[in-house]
């Protein structure tokens, strides 16, 4: 399925991810997953030229157009310090997310003896209390969007508010991009809101695929289309082999 | 005091590790893991270890052999394969006690141990379920005007640390030539004894001074183990053996296949392991 501009769903998602870093200035755009990585690179090449990007390991890239050209060194230890200083906006993945943005990448089921052990909390606890965080969910489903996560790896708004100033001080979840929609927390009590649906997706479809009631105010807009220049950069420069379409099927 | 030449054989090293020890393992995920040292431990009867690691197949192999009582880790992954199959199985069968730490807690816990401090304050972990699943974690209130209540990451004091370097000298100075030192120098500083394996032993180091990561006053034994990080990566000497890693993951999925894998690769000494790796059919080595 394509849209008036001929963009695929994956391309809509890349641009929706890129938008997460709009206006972020000179900070590190960190990602997990193909589509967010492309989004960060697209933002860097267009409307957020000051962003810093890594090669996925310890090097900072001068430009995403030339992976061999580096501008800095960011091994894990410096990376963690940078995150603690707040100079980073990361888009992480999530095995589970609840309505306040509590995220689980640790395990599914009872933590003491999980049904499915996943990665472990990794840096999610510190990321969420130190700098802006967004999430990428390539398959929007009630298995991901659950009433209650089995383990809070990344801290959500309700936890941050309840735990006091040391947690809330630098906490801020920006948006959740999925293959169907963009969600945010722009509600009075920071409950997750349906911010936009991707072209061709109905709001009912998103509601059905979400395991809790999403906040909706008024008419839900449609996620914006990529510009011609964005499509050109994405298709010719950043992802000529179409890896984006393997993460989000059209 | 032993002599300046700290070289040991793998059996000599393994004989110094006893059951119940707390063992820190350097590297990160499936990158520059001291795998020859881990394989040497598998040949002993050592058990009930507390393993401290940014985990990869080091944790997987020790867990599969039932050697871990407690694991302290922020994650266990094979990088190009996100989930470590043996770690998963051990957790899902309740075979090991897991202390799940946040990465920044882990960094500061090692730093505290390296500085002989009881803890370091850290924001990461607060508000998450990490402290709720770990009753030994405590908070600490800043004595200054801010009065913030922060997590007190306890010192990760290690009995021994195991690290793998690109180059070392016989005295125990170690050089990391890859893009990321990970936490390896901290591991050596947090441990009473460090055993350092390396790709090459040199008389004279070449390369920038910043690459001289590990210092001999922190090292008890040096082991020359060419391709000793296999199948994890050891840049720039070699990359991860992805075909081998895929075979490892496939084998881990079934007890019978795993026994065959063990018989083929892990039944002999390190030379036998390396020969078995080289003895793979060309199509296996790229599968």
From TrEMBL, chain A:
InterPro entries according to UniProt: CoA_trans_fam_I, NagB/RpiA_transferase-like
Q: Supply the Pfam families for this chain.
A: CoA_trans
**Signal peptide bounds:** none
**Top-level taxon of the source organism:** Bacteria
| Spans traversing the lipid bilayer | none
* Family listed: Belongs to the 3-oxoacid CoA-transferase subunit B family.
Q: Provide the protein name.
A: CoA-transferase
Q: What is the native source organism of this protein?
A: Streptomyces smyrnaeus
Automatic annotation (TrEMBL), chain B:
Q: Does the keyword Transferase apply?
A: yes
Coiled coil residues, start to end: none
Q: Which UniProt keywords apply?
A: Transferase
Indicate whether Membrane appears among the record's keywords: no
- Domain of life of the native organism: Bacteria
Which Gene3D superfamilies does the record cross-reference, listed alphabetically?
3.30.30.40, Glutaconate Coenzyme A-transferase
- List, in alphabetical order, the Gene Ontology terms for molecular function in this entry: transferase activity
Protein name, per record: CoA transferase subunit A
> Which species does this protein come from?
Streptomyces smyrnaeus
> Source organism lineage?
Bacteria, Bacillati, Actinomycetota, Actinomycetes, Kitasatosporales
